[in-house]
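A further point concerns the way the authors explain their paired sequence and structure data. Each protein is reduced to its one-letter sequence and a matching series of backbone shape codes. An entry of this sort, consisting of the sequence and the corresponding backbone structure tokens, reads as follows:
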Amino acid sequence: MTNHARATLESALRERKLDRTLTTALAPLERRDPSALVPMDVAAVDACLHGGLPRGQLSELAGPRSSGRMTLLLQLVAAATGRGEIAALVDTLDRLDVASAAAAGVDLSRLLWIRGHALASPGPRGPAEATVDRALKALNLVLQAGGFGVVAIDLADVSPAVLKQIPFTTWLRVQRTIEGSDTACVLLASEPLARSAGGLTLSLASRATWAGASNQSRRLAGAAMRVRVVSPRKRIDGEATVAASVPRGA
């Protein structure tokens, strides 16, 4: 009886093209067509991703502040615009530093920057909820328009209390919109929130290294970003470390 009910449910989902929500219905680990992936042009990360983030899926860059989440997103956007693709960023709290984006190699002429509203305190009630709601509506409009290689929404500094109020059906609609398209949708958050069944979560952490013999002479010498990639069906599950040095005098 249980097997019959499950078969009926799976059949109904397939009829409505929602079978991608069933991780057991997805194929096991395979080599994907490179054109179905969006590489970051970061060798260690792309190797761990088996080529890049999947197009037509919702993926996540999740980590605490100073974990390298924005750095990695800018690298992804820079790689995409460098290939001639168009990218979009829904900047929920208006936190993007344009100079940093340009320094990362982003072709600003190929970036649609949708600016949100900066909040003095993006707390759990009132203006923050309205700001997130507008950002999600903007994201939906951009995805429906199509033609973008990468579309990202930055929710990293939004209060977790506000994010938890977002219905999970919101992310199902996002996935349904981009299913089968050439767009990789990326969510920037402080913790995993909404990955689709075929998308990936990149869990980020960083560790700083210091130079100097005493507290007075200590200086930042470098930083290592650890990227743990998680897949819902073990298509990918591994780690990569990206190290960066800081020039003397910086």
In short: The CA atoms of residues 86 and 148 lie 5 Å apart. Residues 127-145 form the longest helix (19 residues).
